[in-house]
Write a structure and sequence with these properties.
Elements (H helix, E strand, L loop, with lengths): L4 H11 L11 H9 L22 E3 L4 E4 L2 E4 L2 H12 L5 E2 H9 L7 H18 L3 E6 L3 E6 L10
Antiparallel strand pairs: 1-2, 2-3, 4-6, 5-6
Helix pairs in contact: 3-4, 3-5
C-alpha cells in the first residue's frame, strides 16, 4: 500500500535533519529518479519529457539553484523549499497552511502574507528563466504549480 502524500510529508518532517531523505511513491518512480541524469527533475507535467533538456525545469538542491532553457537562478532556502514542495505534486492545490508547514516548518500557523511574499519572489525567478512553469493562485485556497506549455485537458479556461 502506497502512503498518502500527507503521510509522506509527516514522515519527512519527522526525519528532517536526521539523514538525507528521498520519498517516492513506488519502486518505478525510484528507478526513474536514479536513471535521471539531473540532480532532481520534477515529476510530470512540470518535468514532462521534452524535445530538449533545456525545456525541463531542473532543481539542483545541492547548489540551491533552478535551471531551464540554459539559464540558471539561485534560490534562497525558503524559495527552494517552496518549489520543491510544489513539484512533489504539481497539479495539486496546496493550502496556505500546508505550504507554511512544509516551508517554514511551523505547526498551526497560516501566515498568508509570508506565503504570498515568497510566491511573488519565486514567480519572478521562474519568469527570469523563461519557463512555462508558473505558480497559479487558487482563490481562497492556496497555490499550485502548472506548466503553461502543456495544453489543458477538459474544462474551459
Amino acid at each position: 500500500m502506497t502512503p498518502s502524500p500527507a503521510e509522506r510529508i509527516r514522515l519527512a518532517e519527522r526525519l528532517d535533519g536526521v539523514a538525507p531523505l528521498l520519498l517516492v511513491a513506488d519502486l518505478d518512480e525510484l528507478r526513474r529518479l536514479i536513471a535521471a541524469p539531473t540532480p532532481l527533475a520534477p515529476s510530470a507535467p512540470v518535468g514532462a519529457p521534452a524535445a530538449a533538456d533545456d525545456d525541463v525545469l531542473l532543481i539542483d538542491s545541492a547548489r540551491s539553484t533552478v535551471r531551464s532553457r540554459g539559464r540558471e537562478v539561485g534560490l534562497t532556502r525558503l524559495e527552494h523549499d517552496l518549489l520543491a514542495c510544489l513539484t512533489t505534486e504539481p497539479v495539486r492545490v496546496w493550502s496556505y497552511a500546508e505550504l507554511h508547514r512544509s516551508v517554514w516548518r511551523d505547526e498551526g500557523r497560516e501566515r498568508r502574507a509570508d506565503v504570498q511574499s515568497l510566491v511573488k519572489r519565486l514567480r519572478r525567478k521562474l519568469h527570469e528563466l523563461g519557463t512555462g512553469v508558473a505558480i497559479d493562485s487558487v482563490r481562497g485556497v492556496g497555490f499550485r504549480l502548472t506548466d503553461h506549455r502543456q495544453p489543458r485537458v477538459g474544462g474551459s479556461g
